[in-house]
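A favour, since you know our structure tokens better than I do. Go ahead and set the record down below.
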Amino acid sequence: MSRDRDTASALIAEARRCFTEANLADPATDARVLVAGILGLSLSDVVMRGDIAVCREEAERVRAAVVRRCKHEPVHRILGHRAFYGLDLRLSPATLEPRPDTEILVDSVLPHLKRTIAEKGSARLLDLGVGTGAIALALLKECPQARAVGSDISEEALSTAESNAYINGVAERFETVRSAWFACIDGRFDIIVSNPPYIPTGVVAELDPEVRDYDPLAALDGGEDGLDAYRALAAGAGAFLEPRGLVAVEIGYDQKDSVTALFEAAGFSLLEARRDHGGNDRVLLFTTRNCCKC
């Protein structure tokens, strides 16, 4: 291929060959998404206008990004943003990259949030370990009568979440607090949500390099058994919930029974369990034992 006459299609083909040689899991998809993202093209543009000429400077930007991907840096980390539940979310080194499975948590919470708003006229939610803001901001976007507080131990993560709230038009209904779980939280909430770290410490080193080397350790490591965050959530949530309040958490594929036991011991009842796109347990919803939101 002549580098004086690069096209989008040719660059995608070149990237795919490189990714195949690097033994990446999905070289074709990675090549399309990465090259299109670097060039500012939609995926439909790639199909319809793949023969569009690319200047030398842009081609070199693409090739530099390809080198980074061959070292297992995730595509969306390279691009600096990712779509989630209709939002465009900026990423930073201090934030977990939102995954499609986390959209199931949003789907699970949304009917309860809408019902609370229908009954009360508004709703207040708390996102613990907010990261990019993905969960809270998606719920705010869907429900204009809701307000949210996002907490995190990382100032950089909080700054990223605030930026994403502004980008997606919900900043006036979103605030952040630096807090280790409930330590600096005030008030009560209709819904508490969290996608906490849940990987056992001993397993972190075995994760794919895309996760192990690029997602922040604090968002992955859940302690020796992976349950440290759930202990904190179960122990503290009751003091911050409104009557008939709801707690919704994302879990690891094998943690349904252990997480449920922790919340039941703290006075909660399992209201709903949802599986992810691979058929694994992924989301649990709890309410206090003396009430039912059926």
Notes: The longest helix spans residues 103-120. The domain at 8-79 is CATH 1.10.8.10 (Helicase, Ruva Protein; domain 3). Strands lie at 81-84, 87-90, 123-128, 146-152, 174-178, 189-194, 241-250, 268-275, 281-288.
